[in-house]
């Protein structure tokens, strides 16, 4: 599995990054940038697979739902009726399906010394969600988490953790969404295997012509807004010093924000005012995007499925690949 440099998304998909984490010292920031080196370590597999996670309760309301949509740039055209319903309670307000990805994160656990994980070398490889019913506009949710599988790629080649989250309505018990994250642990090869990995999503067909294309010019402050919307406070999305230490020219966009832009494009071209049609999404992260860039989403209609990819136009770089969205009936 080929995964590019996404070591900076530690908090985005598999653990809430605290605003002032005790382990995020100046030393650890430099280590994560590759400026300091630690001896080779290996994941403590029994500790990791035996780990239990406390359920997370989180309440959100119509205002949080509108703010999430604004974090994706919805409402940039004030007369676009298709998107107005996501950001304005004066219409019959809708919820963007990808909002499920910012719900119910556990605390970041990979830095626990007992796990033995080389956490500064974790990459965010893939992300997916499946909706079991449309997200309510307002809800108290309960999130539970477990490690589905660990795949050992061998000494010097790293390991993969497949981390699943189940989100339910805390009051009714109804299942709302399943989230799945693939984490590439570059420094933990040789740790051993556990469980069964999900099937690999195939690449897009070579030479395919998009059925539709959407372009979104992101705002220079987009990551500063999205970090507050999503509660992902990783400093690499806000602090130029941290971003440069990690090898980037400036703060970078959240990968899940870019995935949300792809969801926005699908809703625009295939949702037909019916966000409940969107049942699931999958992406492989390829390269980081930067706030202020134009993101082009290429959509390929395959019937009940929509394949997609996203590019940063100014650099002609693919940022999302192997995208797959499944739609329900019209």
Task: Summarize the structure in words.
The chain is α+β, with helices and mostly antiparallel strands and 330 residues long. 18% of the residues lie in helices and 29% in strands. The chain has helices at 26-32, 45-49, 62-71, 81-87, 222-230, 240-245, 255-271, and strands at residues 56-60, 122-131, 139-152, 159-169, 175-185, 194-195, 212-217, 278-285, 294-302, 305-312, 317-327. Helix 3 runs antiparallel to helix 5 (222-230). Residues 1-14 and 18-39 have low confidence and may be disordered.
Features:
330 residues, alpha+beta, eleven-stranded antiparallel β-sheet
As a whole number of angstroms, the C-alpha radius of gyration is 19 Å
**Unreliable runs, pLDDT <50, ≥5 residues?**
1-14, 18-39
* Dominant shape: globular
Q: Mean pLDDT, nearest integer?
A: 87
Strand content: 25-35%
SSE order, one letter for each helix or strand: HHEHHEEEEEEHHHEEEE
CATH topology: Thiol Ester Dehydrase, Chain A
CATH architecture: Roll
Helix percentage range = 10-25%
- How many strand elements? 11
* The CATH homology group name: Hotdog Thioesterase
Gap between N and C termini:
35 Å
Number of helices: 7
Domains counted in the coordinates: how many?
Answer: 1
């Amino acid at each position: 599995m080929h995964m590019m440099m996404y070591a900076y998304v530690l908090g985005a998909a598999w653990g809430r990054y605290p605003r002032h984490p005790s382990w995020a010292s100046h030393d650890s920031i430099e280590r994560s940038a590759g400026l300091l080196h630690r001896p080779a370590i290996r994941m403590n597999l029994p500790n990791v697979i035996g780990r239990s996670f406390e359920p997370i309760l989180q309440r959100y309301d119509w205002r949080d739902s509108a703010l999430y949509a604004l974090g994706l740039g919805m409402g940039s055209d004030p007369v676009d009726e298709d998107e107005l319903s996501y950001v304005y309670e004066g219409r019959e307000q809708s919820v963007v399906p990808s909002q499920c990805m910012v719900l119910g994160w556990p605390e970041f656990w990979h830095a626990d010394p007992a796990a033995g994980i080389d956490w500064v070398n974790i990459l965010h490889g893939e992300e997916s969600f499946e909706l079991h019913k449309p997200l309510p506009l307002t809800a108290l949710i309960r999130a539970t988490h477990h490690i589905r599988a660990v795949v050992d790629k061998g000494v010097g080649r790293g390991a993969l953790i497949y981390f699943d989250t189940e989100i339910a309505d805390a009051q009714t018990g109804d299942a709302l969404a399943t989230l799945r994250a693939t984490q590439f642990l570059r420094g933990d090869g040789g740790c051993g295997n556990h469980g069964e990995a999900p099937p690999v999503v195939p690449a897009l067909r070579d030479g395919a012509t998009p059925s539709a294309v959407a372009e979104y010019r992101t705002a220079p402050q987009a990551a500063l807004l999205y970090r507050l919307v999503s509660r992902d406070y990783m400093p690499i999305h806000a602090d130029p010093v941290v971003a440069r230490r990690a090898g980037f020219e400036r703060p970078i966009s959240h990968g899940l924000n870019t995935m949300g832009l792809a969801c926005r494009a699908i809703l625009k071209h295939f949702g037909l005012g019916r966000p409940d049609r969107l049942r699931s999404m999958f992406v492989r992260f390829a390269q980081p995007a930067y706030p202020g860039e134009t993101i082009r989403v290429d959509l390929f209609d395959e019937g009940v499925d929509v394949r997609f990819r996203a590019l940063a136009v100014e650099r002609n770089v693919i940022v999302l690949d192997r995208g797959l969205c499944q739609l329900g009936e019209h």
